[in-house]
Design brief:
By secondary structure, this protein is mostly helical. Helices cover 79% and strands 2% of the residues.
């Protein structure tokens, strides 16, 4: 199931990364760059919901799709955070918290899957809320302007990204607590 519609949509999130980064090297006016990057991020981020919906609807779920989907999400978020750090629109500390957590939890999930205990670190609602907050904060920070004549997206994006960093740590602690009994059993 390498080339199903849902899997192709997932691949678009990975392909989007150089496109979003590249926008900032085209020599366009900053406002135009910001708008293009924001629209691209929102469109590509929406494929996360759409590919899952279509996979279930078209009965095209696969182990490969289940593997690739979170990888594509993490690539898109991490690359966007690096762009935002480069543009000095977010603090490197918040990016390190979010990227570090993604690496740690991905490694934990892989290890737990290898020992047959992947259910103990299955996706939880807290992780989904964290992702939703991140996916809202990033386009606000990419846009970096005034929306609707009164909303400073830089301020809102900064607050939302810090909230997502808090949720990131909270969800990491949750997943580690769920995995701890199995970790203790295996380490002895």
């Amino acid at each position: 199931m390498f080339f199903t519609i849902p899997t192709i949509l997932t691949w678009t999130r990975i392909v989007a990364i150089p496109l979003i980064v590249g926008v900032f090297y085209l020599g366009l006016k900053p406002e135009v760059q910001n708008l293009i990057a924001t629209v691209m991020f929102v469109v590509f981020a929406a494929t996360d919901w759409l590919d899952g919906f279509l996979a279930r609807k078209l009965n095209q779920t696969s182990a490969f799709g289940a593997f690739l989907d979170p990888v594509a999400d993490k690539f898109l978020v991490c690359a966007s955070l690096l762009v935002l750090v480069h543009l000095q629109r977010t603090d490197v500390f918040v990016a390190l918290i979010i990227i570090g957590r993604e690496i740690a939890i991905s490694a934990l999930r892989e290890w737990m899957a290898n020992i047959g205990a992947s259910k103990s670190v299955a996706v939880h609602m807290l992780g989904k809320v964290k992702t939703a907050v991140q996916m809202t904060a990033i386009p606000f920070l990419l846009f970096d302007g005034v929306l609707f004549g009164f909303m400073d997206t830089g301020v809102w994006g900064t607050w939302l990204l810090w909230i997502s960093a808090i949720l990131t740590v909270w969800s990491m602690v949750y997943y580690l607590q769920k995995a701890l009994p199995e970790i203790r059993r295996r380490v002895k």
